[in-house]
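The material for today's practical consists of a large collection of protein records. An example says more than a description, so a record of this kind follows:
***
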Amino acid sequence: MANQGFLKQKAGFATIAIHAGQDPEKWNSAAVVPPIVTATTFKQPAPAEHTGFEYGRSGNPTRNTLEECLAALDGGKHALTFASGLGATTTVISLLNSGDHIISCDDVYGGTNRLFRKVLERLNVETTFTDFTNPQLIKDAIKENTKMIWIETPTNPLLKVIDIAAIVAIAKSHRNILVVVDNTFLTPYLQRPLEFGADIVLYSLTKYMNGHSDVIMGAAVVNDDVLEEKLRFLQNAMGVVPSPIDCYLVNRSLKTLALRMEKHQKSSYIIAKWLENHPKVTEVLHPGLPSHPQHEIAKKQMSGHSGVFSFKHSGGLEESRKFLSSLKVFILAESLGGYESLAELPSVMTHASVPEKQRAELGITDSLIRLSVGLEDTEDLIEDLDQAFKAAF
């Protein structure tokens, strides 16, 4: 079973996804499907007296509908949406001041790594990257000016599972350290970081939440009213907002999130088991497998694992290139979480922006392949991997 021994799935998730924030009474037309409101400005009954909306960057009825639904799915009070996942990250780190310090997990999305190193550093915000599977390293990295701990779990692309509750406990033993969890790989269907004490849950909605590879968007979910107020100010002041049409598309996609995640979860587990037995595979990095080094932590905080995982083979760059070029059902492309299955080589694609020395230390080698298992028939995907192995080796 794909989710054997994991946390029991939260009751009512699919119902919340379909109904939260979607009340037809909101609209004069009583539309069951929330309408797309594209207006950039809204009529005011008197000067500086608006009826809830004044300008499209500051608020939009379609966007608000999506944000209500997102907050409910994570068991949070507030959600804010942004123009991209990195847009959400940029806004969240704008809570910091010059001279502040971030501790980030070392194995992190390439775009996050680049933003922290190439942009934040220039603005005098220092980042320490360390291995979060060893909590002592986090304790050792905390300084007087540490204001944020950045967790991604499972990590990208090595699928390390980080104990959220343990890191929250470390952060809370100091004053004013915010804990951010990037939950993109799992969605609230499989992990709800706020329940383990995280302050902010961050998403690239582009991936599983939208699930159709046709929208770029990000989100942050919080419980704290003061934090929401600060982020709401930044969302408006920085203008990193999504379009109403994209908000409509993501809101629609959430209605099938539970169904999609079940299929991703089942297929990826079957494929991971198949790869474990393949003679050319040296390691499979899937948190659902008992062989995964943090399998026990995964069972403690996750309801299962999604469709994204990595594996290492016995060849090198040449075999990786041949393998990926030989795939017929899996598409060689960056990104993940869509209905279509994708395969990529992180060392030269998604994580090429990570310095070579750091890649080598992490083990992001030319024989590490990342898969995003889609919604096709599982047997067809296994057949495709099998023929690609034969072509490469």
In short: The chain has a mean pLDDT of 96. The radius of gyration is 21 Å. Residues 355 and 361 are 10 Å apart (CA to CA). The longest helix spans residues 257-276.
